[in-house]
Request: fold
Amino acid sequence: MKEDETAKPGLFSPSSRRFWLRILAGFGIAAAAGSVSGYLLTIDIPRVSRLEDYRPPIGTKIYSDVGEVLYEFAGQKRILIRYEQIPEVLRTAIIATEDSRFYHHFGIDPRSILRAAIKDVLSLRFAQGASTITQQLARNLFLQPDKTVWRKVQEAVLALQIEKVYTKEEILEFYCNQIYMGHGRYGLEAASRLYHGKHAADLTLAEAALLAGILQRPEALSPFRHPERALRKRDHVLNRMVKEGYLTREDFEIHSKEPLVLPEPQETKNIAPYFVERIRQDLEKRYGGKAIYGGGMEVYSTLNMEMQAAANEAVLKGLRALDKRQGYRGPIRNLLDEDSEVSLDEYEDEAWEEEIETGSILPGLVTKVGPDGADIRIGEYRGQVSREGFGWTKEIDPQNLFHIGDLSWFLVEKIDREKGLVHLSLEQEPVVEGAL
Reply:
């Protein structure tokens, strides 16, 4: 009996073997491509277990003889905070704004990615990030901030690894201590003390919303520089909290009307710069510069801050007294000599931007000169310097000493804030130097 020529080829016929070889080759190529891609994605990604040993850079504090903070060396001004110390209002404000599905996703949020991809396609540019809190943490700790597809893929891979190893609470704690908050501050505790003058645990709902709002663009939304922008962003956060069910509409109406109250910025003043510098040099020899600015050391010194302040004041007074005995050298400059059309009423000096206090030595503008003295303006305050105030110059006629438009140094002896008046005496910057 002849074999049917129309019958299908057997399993091991030449044509079938070629078919299955193609299939196996395809699977092999796919597996190899997947392995190579996986390797390339993770080749320069650090191990997430490093988070367990991660210590954010913390500056070195130098203390006085009684335990007061004398000075702090800090590349990054940061105060660490535990998850339990982060108030619920701050946690929910951040989650509602930055990552509403934080407790439900596994490091990346497919919904957000799809939504961002659609917006990118419609806008024809790579603008939408769709980064979860975990992805932001991965980027801030381990990756470069480049906005490229490759970096975003690496960010996602690292976020998935972080989610496998750490709990949501641990991830949020890392995030809250790492995030940059403007003006050199890192972490929410340092930001809370800067912008609200209190611990993060004591924040009100509106204050927490303000912090959550500015963390995306801290310099552009700083309440010190752009209070109106910061308030608009705060209200946006409150509105997001309403949409996510953390807040009622009635609560929104109440807290969105809360005024912005900012503390005076606390500047770090070094009352013993030479003493502190000697300590810095000693520390650098022993431990290196990196330890000073990131090692979190605490150094207890012998310096008494009250005695140092008294010594500084005594030396300065002595220098000024000595300098005055050498005679008056004239004003800082004359505005009318520089520009005859300048308006003296509209002139504002940078030194006048700070609050004027008794004992301040500031530049004052001469607006009028008479036989008994000169009228002076310092910011919004008006005053007159009489013969008693310039007697040390040995000049009797004030018209030989002052000219309209002069900008000279004056000591503020008394202030009447209600009337806007100041009592002044003439000063000058010493050219002599001294040490103690």
Notes: DSSP finds 16 helices and eleven strands in the chain. The longest strand covers residues 406-416. The radius of gyration is 33 Å.
